[in-house]
Design goal:
CATH superfamily of the largest domain: P-loop containing nucleotide triphosphate hydrolases
Distance between the termini: 51 Å
Radius of gyration: 24 Å
CATH class of the largest domain: Alpha Beta
CATH topology of the largest domain: Rossmann fold
CATH architecture of the largest domain: 3-Layer(aba) Sandwich
Structural class: alpha/beta
Largest sheet: 7 strands, mixed
Strand content: 15-25%
Number of helices: 17
Shape: globular
Helix content: 25-40%
Length: about 500
């Protein structure tokens, strides 16, 4: 790609951007949210037509008119939000949209053989073609997307945040698949905000900032600090800013909470002004615990006591009751649960709590827009204005909108499930700063994260979930990354 430019109205998304990727290379595309990474890859995959610039594929001019033409030429893109039909099987999803047929009849036996061959190539013959996608884990769904690309003999594979919803073991398996594809000569463009991960899996990098490419080279010759400085255009002296805060009396007490499957007999105490981190592998029960506390998932036994309100502990609750008690949840599934993507930024932030803007049954829309504008400024949400649809924002800015909705409600207890998923390095630092300020203001925060440096960097205490059970919490300073990983994987801090 050479000299690629793209405007959307007055917004310059790409300005004279160039990118070169070799066969058998993993090339990291790095940048903040809104830097132009997704737009550049949409140009490559035929979803967006550039205003200027040229592209070559295998030395021949390449100008796809649509994504289907790009895929037919050997370019496949795997988006962060996977594009699979959950009610269909693996073998039905693989050729979806590119089916070959004779007189309208699809050759299913041929596709079954090709599906099995692709899964064998990925070293996953155990993943059966007849399995419905809805029954697969997030990691296996990711693998199905990769298999779709290989079914069309993709020579260039774009992976957008492929590990954002995966646990440690699944990430390792994905890296094995990537190495196998690289050995087969596939060129891989790898987009990720996890820079340590990028250094491990990629050989070269290109950094975008404000729609321009500001650096490219071998990853072996650059440090993490230099990458961050290229991304944000300034020094980032402290990745995990610490805000002084005092821990007060208990505000949330969980006793013996047990769900239908997960969690299993969990007891914990969360104090005012405290940041309590929950580590664990995907599927360990961390999300289920937060949903049970908030009243979204049924509880078979156990109690929840919100300490700032009088009354006995409750065995059951509803989200409406929890919100009334001052407990709020930020879901890890921002697409399905956290946002109304077709609505505007102001609607998403304000609709959960309209009482401050009600006058005799009428809404003060102007005041709503002013208040939403305040949250946009405070969280540095990059939007044209508060009337822009959320689905038109980058993933990281969507996450900030979901967080702003929770903060607008002004709850006392914040249940944060993967709050920095899909957010760039600089924005993560802003979120960490904000979480520290909330704790300093007396908020109690229960934070689930799969990013261990994040837990060690900002939490006061950390507990680990393993197969639905929660370990005793300990001060963050008493944990190491190795101990957390070992405890999450085995249920024990040390294994023989």
């Amino acid at each position: 790609m050479e000299g690629v430019c793209k405007r959307f109205g007055a917004t310059v998304a790409l300005q004279d951007v160039s990118l070169a990727v070799q066969a058998g290379e993993v090339h990291a595309l790095i940048g903040e949210n809104g830097a132009g990474k997704s737009t550049l890859m949409k140009v490559l995959s035929g979803a967006v037509c550039p205003d200027a610039g040229r592209m070559w594929l295998d030395g021949r001019p390449f100008a796809p008119s649509n994504p289907l033409a790009a895929r037919a030429a050997g370019v496949a893109m795997i988006y962060q939000e996977l594009n699979l039909a959950p009610h269909l099987t693996v073998e039905q999803n693989l050729p979806l949209g590119i089916e070959r047929h004779i007189a309208g009849v699809i050759r299913r036996a041929a596709y079954r053989r090709r599906t099995e061959a692709v899964l064998q190539r990925l070293n996953r013959p155990d993943l059966r073609p007849e399995t419905p996608v809805r029954r697969l884990s997030p990691a296996d769904r990711q693998l199905v997307e990769i298999a779709r690309a290989l079914l069309t003999d993709a020579r260039v594979l774009v992976m957008d945040e492929p590990t954002s919803s995966l646990g440690l073991a699944d990430i390792e398996r994905l890296f094995d698949v990537i190495e196998r594809l690289r050995a087969d000569g596939v060129a891989i463009v790898y987009i990720s905000h996890f820079l340590e991960e990028v250094q491990r899996v990629a050989q070269r990098y290109t950094v975008l900032r404000d729609g321009r490419d500001v650096g490219t080279g071998a990853l072996a010759s650059v440090t993490l600090g230099q990458l961050v400085e290229l991304m944000i255009g300034r020094r980032l002296d402290e990745m995990f800013p610490r805000v002084a805060h005092e821990i007060g009396p208990p505000v949330l007490q969980i006793t013996g909470i047990t769900g239908r499957r997960l969690p299993n007999d969990v007891t914990l105490t969360l104090r005012r002004g405290e940041i309590l981190g929950l580590a664990g592998l995907v599927g360990a029960g961390r999300t289920e615990l937060l949903r049970a506390i908030f009243g979204l998932d049924p509880v078979r036994r156990g109690t929840v006591r919100v300490g700032v309100y009088p009354g006995s502990a409750e065995a059951y609750g509803t989200p409406a009751r929890r919100l009334a008690q001052g407990v709020g949840l930020l879901s890890e599934d921002r697409q399905g649960e956290g946002l109304a993507r077709a609505r505007s930024v102001v609607d998403n932030i304000m609709l959960g709590w309209l009482r401050p803007f009600m006058i005799l049954g009428w809404l003060n829309v102007r005041a709503m827009r002013r208040a939403a504008g305040g949250w946009v400024q405070r969280l540095d949400i990059r939007a044209r204005d508060v009337g822009q649809r959320v689905q038109d924002l980058s993933g990281g800015n969507q996450q900030k909108v979901a967080l702003a909705r929770l903060l607008h409600r002004d709850v006392d207890v914040l249940l944060l499930d993967e709050p920095t998923r899909g957010i760039d390095v600089a924005s993560k630092a802003q979120i960490y700063q904000l979480v520290g300020e909330l704790a300093a203001g007396g908020k109690a925060i229960l934070l689930v994260s799969s990013y261990i440096p994040e837990l060690l960097g900002i939490c006061d205490r950390i507990a680990v979930m393993h197969r639905g059970r929660l370990s005793a919490s300990r001060p963050a300073g008493e944990w190491t990354e190795h101990a957390l990983v070992t405890q999450a994987a085995s249920g024990k801090e040390r294994v023989a």
